[in-house]
Amino acid sequence: MSTNPLLEKNAFDRLEASLRKIKENSELFILKDEHGCVMLTTDEEDGIPVWPEAELALLWATDEWSQCEAMRLSVDDFLSKWAPGMSQDDLMVMVCPVPGEEGEVIEPGDFAQQIG
Fold first, then answer.
1. CATH code assigned at 36
2. Which residues contact 49 (CB under 8 A, 6 or more apart)?
3. At CA 103, angle to CA 41 and CA 15, rounded to 5?
4. pTM summary value
């Protein structure tokens, strides 16, 4: 099991730390397989989980997602392609979920402003 410090944080603190790291490194990660990117559903929202590091994304690559791999997205690609498409499809950004705990759910436009 990883000893990544983000695993010890609650969802809000993971959001804050993830935003800083994504902005600092100009990259984020999603999970994808041959069918496309992994999507999650909460009680009220559908969205795409994102992580600041490939290692954290791969913690979700278990069970039904065991064939997934972490895919790097530049912040520029996310801002120019992903955020507009997610907004159009009513998808949310789920920031840094970890095993056993969902991440904070925010609108793609808000997420884009925070990392852009």
1. 3.40.1350.90
2. 30, 31, 38, 40, 57, 60, 94, 95, 96, 97, 103
3. 145
4. 0.91
Q: How many CB atoms within 10 Å of residue 61?
A: 16
Residue 60 CB: number of other CB atoms within 10 A? 19
> Which neighbouring-strand residues pair with 93?
48, 106
Tokens of 13: 């603190």
Instruction: Tell me the residue range of the domain where 43 lies.
Output: 5-115
Total domains, the chain: 1
Rounded (10°) angle between helices 108-115 and 11-25: 50
What tens digit of pLDDT does each residue of 42-76 get? 888 999 999 999 999 999 888 877 899 999 999 99
Is 91 within 8 Å of 108 (Cβ atoms)?
A: yes
Residue 47 structure tokens: 């969205």
Structure tokens at 26: 């100009």
pLDDT at 1 over 60: no
What length is written for the chain?
116
